């Protein structure tokens, strides 16, 4: 009898474990949202699609750069000066940071996620890496990129 009683328990435990695993995999976490936002931003940048990458900026960043100026600057600096058409990049795991601000002049953002981005260029000046800490905050349900100006 005891052998039969343990069989339903095994099924219940397996079902519960599988349900928990599916929920963890299907329900996006804040860190996954943050990493996805940074990945999307640099994927646009990688293709030279600076208009779409600008759209992923947080409102604090959009105050710093008009869309036209950003597109012109990015294309000029990276494509013209560096002599590159694209780059590879890697991202670190997002780390939660509380009470962060973009610069001394700006208000604090309650919660951001820090992702270190390494852009790898093969340029007319040789191979080079550009490493930048990028921050992501949720604003009106969207995860948006902020750069550090401290």
Which secondary structure elements does this structure contain, and how are they paired or packed?
Layout: H1 2-26, H2 30-46, H3 50-55, H4 59-64, H5 67-81, E1 88-91, E2 95-100, E3 109-123, E4 126-139, E5 142-147
Antiparallel strand pairs: 1-3, 2-3, 3-4, 4-5
How would you describe the overall organization of this protein?
- The chain is an alpha+beta fold and 150 residues long.
- It has one domain: Roll (Nuclear Transport Factor 2, Chain: A), CATH 3.10.450.
- The chain has 5 helices and 5 strands, in the order H-H-H-H-H-E-E-E-E-E.
- The chain has helices at residues 2-26, 30-46, 50-55, 59-64, 67-81, and strands at residues 88-91, 95-100, 109-123, 126-139, 142-147.
- Strands 1, 2, 3, 4 and 5 form a 5-stranded antiparallel sheet that branches.
- The radius of gyration is 21 Å and the shape is extended.
Short structural description:
With 150 residues, the chain is an alpha+beta fold. The chain is 46% helix and 30% strand.
């Amino acid at each position: 009898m005891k052998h039969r009683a343990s069989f339903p328990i095994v099924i219940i435990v397996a079902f519960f474990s599988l349900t928990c695993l599916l929920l963890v995999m299907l329900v996006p976490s804040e860190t996954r949202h943050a990493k996805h936002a940074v990945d999307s931003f640099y994927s646009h940048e990688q293709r030279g699609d600076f208009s779409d990458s600008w759209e992923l900026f947080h409102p604090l960043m959009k105050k710093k750069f008009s869309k036209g100026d950003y597109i012109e600057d990015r294309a000029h600096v990276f494509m013209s000066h560096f002599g590159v058409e694209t780059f590879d990049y890697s991202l670190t795991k997002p780390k939660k940071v509380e009470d962060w601000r973009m610069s001394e002049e700006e208000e604090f953002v309650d919660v951001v996620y820090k992702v270190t981005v390494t852009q790898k260029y093969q340029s007319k000046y040789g191979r080079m890496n550009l490493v930048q800490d990028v921050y992501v905050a949720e604003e009106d349900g969207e995860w948006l990129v902020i750069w550090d100006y401290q």
